[in-house]
Design a protein that fits this description.
Length: 79
């Protein structure tokens, strides 16, 4: 099955509703564009992660300061 969309001012486009529904896409999901070795374009969709999504993924015996961690995350984990 093939879909086509128009590119609007500002290089914006619309993801067809059939694709949005099938992949359960929502506002703030991420579209990733890749070129493969032949020069073809591949597109992947992923959910945007936020701090609440990653809480509890890892465990540590080390004590942490939640306020300092949030500040580091907001700064992009700069040392």
């Amino acid at each position: 099955m093939s879909f086509s969309t128009k590119i609007y001012k500002g290089f914006q486009t619309v993801i067809p509703s059939e694709i949005r529904k099938k992949l359960n896409l929502e506002v703030d999901d991420i579209v990733e564009w890749f070129f493969d070795e032949t020069g073809s374009i591949n597109i992947e969709f992923r959910k945007r992660s936020n701090f609440e999504d990653i809480i509890g993924i890892g465990e540590s015996e080390e004590k942490t300061d939640a306020v300092k961690l949030k500040k580091r995350i907001a700064q992009g984990f700069k040392p």
